[in-house]
Amino acid sequence: MVELAKNFIGKECLIYAFDSSHQITGVIKEVTDGAILVEKAGTLEAINLDFVFRIREMPLNKKGKKKSVILD
């Protein structure tokens, strides 16, 4: 998971943890052996990789803007 998460460094992503109700949105700044460092609204947040089951790049609409509704 660490090697896969490194592909998303510098990109705005949706990070799914625990179950589908725990979703974190932010820019991935750093990936270490046990955690992901995410910047969200100017603050940094560390997320334990043991609880992450999906990382997805923020989807864009046809005009290149963030989608307002994301249905998974």
Overall outline:
globular
Distance between the termini: 21 Å
Strand content: over 45%
Mean pLDDT: 86
Number of strands: 5
Helical fraction equals under 10%
Radius of gyration: 12 Å
Enumerate how many helices there are, as a single number.
1
Which structural class do the helices and strands define?
A: mainly beta
Strands of the largest sheet, in order across it?
4-3-2-1-5
Q: Main beta sheet, described?
A: 5 strands, antiparallel
Low-confidence stretches: none
**Order of SSEs:** HEEEEE
Task: Explain what you see.
The protein has 72 residues and is mostly beta strands. Helices cover 6% and strands 47% of the residues. It has a five-stranded antiparallel β-sheet, with no helix packed on it.
